[in-house]
Amino acid sequence: MKHDTLVIGAGIAGLQAALDLAEQGHKIALVERNPSIGGRMISLSKVYPTLDCASCITTPRMASVAHHPDITTLTYTEVKDVTQQADGTYKAHLIKKPRYIDEDKCIGCKRCEEVCPVYIKDEFEHNLGAKKAIAIPFTNAIPQYPVLTPDQCTWCGACANACPVDCIDYVQEPKDIFIEAGAVLVATGYELTPFNAKPQYGGGILPNVITSLQGERLLAPHGPFGRVLRPSDGKVPDSIAFVQCAGSRDASLGIPYCSRVCCMYAIKQAMLLSGSLPTADITIYYMDIRAFGKGYEAFYQNAKAMGINFVKAKVGRISEAEDGNVTLRIERQEDTSQPDEVNHDLVVLSLGMKPQWNPATLAWDVETAVDGFVKSPEAPLNPATTTCDGVFACGTATGPKDIVDTVIEAGNSAMVIGNYLMKTTGTRPGGQA
Amino acid sequence: MNTPNNNEPHVGVYICHCGGNISDVIDVKRVAAELSEYPNVTISREFPFMCSDAGQKLVIEDIKSGKINRVVIAACSPMLHELTFRKTLQRAAMNPFLYEHVNIREQASWVHKGDHEGATEKAIRLTRAGVEKILRQDELEAIQVKAAKHVLVIGGGPAGIKAALNSAARNLQVTLVEKSARLGGHLNELDTVYPAGESAQALLHSLFAEIKASPLITVALNTTVTAWDGFVGNFTATLSTGESINAGAVIMSTGYDHVIPAAGEYNYGADERVVTLPKLIEHLKISSGKPLTWNGKSVQSIAFIHCVGSRQTEGVHTPQADGKVNDYCSRVCCTAALHTINVIKKQQPELNIYDLYRDIRTYGRGHEAIYEQASKNGIVFFRFTDDAQPEIRENTVVVKDVLTWSEEVEIPADLVVLVTGIKQGAVDDLVSMMKLPVSSDRFLQEAHPKLRPVEVANNGYFLAGTCQAPMDLIESSAAAGAAASKIAAVLSKDFIPLDPYVARIQADKCTGCEACIPECSYTGAIFMNEASKKAEVNAALCKGCGACVAVCTPRALDLAGWSMDQMDAMVDAMVAEVPA
């Protein structure tokens, strides 16, 4: 298959860039390692500072991409290698992972999911909920194909029996796909900094210490519990703490940089919590509040006016207290530096961002910087270029960034890639002279 | 067109839950049931997310089944998803204007949170009105205007230059208008740029070289836009040089101004030791490498005070000229100040530097390392709150430091640097000429921060850089590229489609009274035909505001898609009985 541009990653950055390129007449191959497009954004609750629901902004983008005649979407597909060919174009070796269904036959009726007797942890809910061993990944997933998880499937045959179109294929194998493209865009996004990076915070051990993305799911309209409950006992929490910089600005974790979004998402989650639990006490323990974007400072001031407590303190240790509660040992950095112990029902660790993928492992010249993100050697004037001619990057692949800044970078990379292709191929995108 | 039983309108009604945004307050099942009983409604459904792929498919399948030929979707604001659903109808090969978007989120569920019954009833009334409106809708067609392949870029700073270069790369003619005598904007003031420390001059030279090499770019220095007219695809700009430009689109890259501290704020203007950060940067640039002196005196210790002109609080700070304080964060000043501090410390490690801040916001890639370096350089940080501003005394600054038990600390300072913020440039004339939307912080307002971050709601206007909000050079470059990308898409086609909701006139009813002419705010949108002595409408110029319709006594004027008949029927539907 020949395309103008290969876009790697179908989160909001990849979706926006693919759409902008396609609007200019490009033919795009969009590769996504997950079974659905939509990236991290589709799993968020609401987005700051407008408090639009994340689904309301993401799903239409997903639908536009899925229906665009010039965008070929390859989901559940990994990039094995990308190499530059003699003529300067790129050839990508992709591997399509087996869903164990025949996608040409599947009608997305969910009968398999209904009859499957095996419940497994739901990754989309960050393990707060359960799904079936064969399931469509989430409500708004595109495409609406179920995925079978072979490790946990008991091969009972219930799904195959129930499928009205006979599309279950238990012996499906990974498939090699080769794509040729004039340019490549790396829009591979981020993952959270490790939950257990600071063992003294109890991440992954104390049930009522959760990650910020778990916090998003608790607040999402289709979340795991349908309302805000704490994981250990289903109690409605009365007192919730956010621990800022739990994975960033900490050289001891190897992540000395600021993750840029955590202050704002914590404030947002705090506001949403205070909306659904009006009597709850909500405290944000922080180092600096970095509300730097358009409308962000006003958002922060609104949160203060709503009664959310902001305490400048470093959290030293988080331990278990009675009844599943959690004790934070803190050192206040204002007024008194006396250590103090405070109790909360539920603690959200505001984890930071680290790169989802390391493109420097492939046989091309794309380099990463000391922070692990893709290096932008011409950043001040050309933030989209990388160390490899013809390969571009945008969004959180080049460092932590919020959605607004990511969407703008995606638009810029669409411009820069179009310019590059005009120069290298002498044609306008889409092959017009 | 897929319109079965063409004379008989069949309406499909879809009620969106919007996750829980609507359905937590409004009984969506009741609304759908109520509407299913309503005359001419053939299908009435409710669905968790109408904007999702599955939701849109529902509409497409109903249209393709031949059961409906009109669509009403009751969901969020049309600002968000009217265009989404127009495309849905197009995919079903149906006229996209045979659809009405009813807002039951902002106008019902969000504003009547505590009144489920009342909100549900209101949703029923609004949706019924939507049905009545679409029953009376004509099969409108988008107005097609010819696109001039010419971009006007206003403002020749880095954002404007990048926008011009990118547009020219797509074979569009560009006029780059700059009011001052040179290109480069505020980048001219800098020596090096954070975070990597590139030379500002080198960056500017590379930009200037690219501009020179592009035959498609015309640079107009010492030039402003003095008059403005037209519409997307066909704007006419009159320049101060007298020249007239016909442009298909315009990029606003008018940049920012430095905030000037209020008279007496931190003794600014009275005490010659008190300067702004831009002044200090200029001074360092001129005196490059030499030991820092101020007014001929050597400097031993410097105090930087952050958030001057930013993050202001009403009642504490002196308001700006428009009576409002700058309550926003200026985004770039923390890192700019620390970058400057490190530059000074590198030259003169023996200098004592104190940094008085509220929050250190070194948010960007590589910024935290600059903060880290400043700490390593021995800078002493003090944190103050907005209600306890540092005080300038003779040779010292006194700060109530919240990091150390709110103790009052007196700091020696030969030089006090006010880290001033940035504010909207002088664009009032452009804003009023072009009728541009402005946010509460006075910066130009984008159509939607995530869906359309570089576009203005008005067609054909785009934003690049700090006229929209504070941003650094990297972010401005990205915004300029994104804006040019949108323009490349719009102007790559020969014709641009516009909404058909414009005034139309029934010539036989027009009495030629001319009452409509002075009401129109858009030059040339409505005019008298000298021969027929009747009013005529230029559809491309008309914005569909309806001012002319309101004064037309013989009812010769009407708005397409918002006709008097439609309004009458909507009002009747809204006040009709709703069964309990």
Number of domains of chain A: 3
Distance between the termini of chain A: 21 Å
Q: How confident overall, as mean pLDDT of chain A?
A: 95
Instruction: Please bin the fraction of helical residues of chain B.
Output: 25-40%
Radius of gyration of chain B: 29 Å
The structure class of chain B reads alpha/beta
Q: Considering the protein shown, what is the CATH homologous superfamily of the largest domain in chain B?
A: FAD/NAD(P)-binding domain
Largest sheet of chain B: 5 strands, parallel
Q: Give the CATH topology of the largest domain in chain A.
A: FAD/NAD(P)-binding domain
Q: Give the uncertain stretches of chain B in residue-range form.
A: 1-5
The structural domain count of chain B equals 4
What are the low-pLDDT stretches of chain A, counting only 5+ consecutive residues below 50? none
CATH topology of the largest domain in chain B: FAD/NAD(P)-binding domain
Question: For the largest interface in this structure, which chains are involved and how many residues does each contribute?
Answer: A-B, 77 and 78 residues
Can you give a write-up of this model?
The complex is a heterodimer of chains A (433) and B (580). Chain A has 433 residues and is α/β, with parallel strands linked by helices. Chain A has 3 domains: 2-97 and 174-189 and 356-431, FAD/NAD(P)-binding domain (3-Layer(bba) Sandwich), CATH 3.50.50; 111-162, no CATH class; 193-352, FAD/NAD(P)-binding domain (3-Layer(bba) Sandwich), CATH 3.50.50. Chain A has 8 helices and 22 strands. In chain A, the strands form 6 sheets. In chain A, strands 1, 2, 5, 6, 7, 12 and 22 form a 7-stranded mixed β-sheet that branches. In chain A, α1 crosses α8 and α5 runs parallel beside α6 (262-276). By secondary structure, chain B is of the alpha/beta class. Chain B folds into 4 domains: 11-141, Rossmann fold, CATH 3.40.50; 150-255 and 425-496, 3-Layer(bba) Sandwich (FAD/NAD(P)-binding domain), CATH 3.50.50; 265-423, FAD/NAD(P)-binding domain; 503-559, Alpha-Beta Plaits, CATH 3.30.70.20. Chain B has a 5-stranded parallel β-sheet, covered by helices on one side. Chain B has a 5-stranded parallel β-sheet with strand order 16-25-19-20-21. Chain B has a 4-stranded parallel β-sheet with strand order 2-1-3-4, sandwiched between helices. The longest helix of chain B is centred in the N-terminal third of the chain and has 20 residues, at 116-135. The model of chain B is unreliable at 1-5 (pLDDT under 50). At the A-B interface, β4, α2, α7 and α8 of A face α2, α3, α6, α7 and α10 of B.
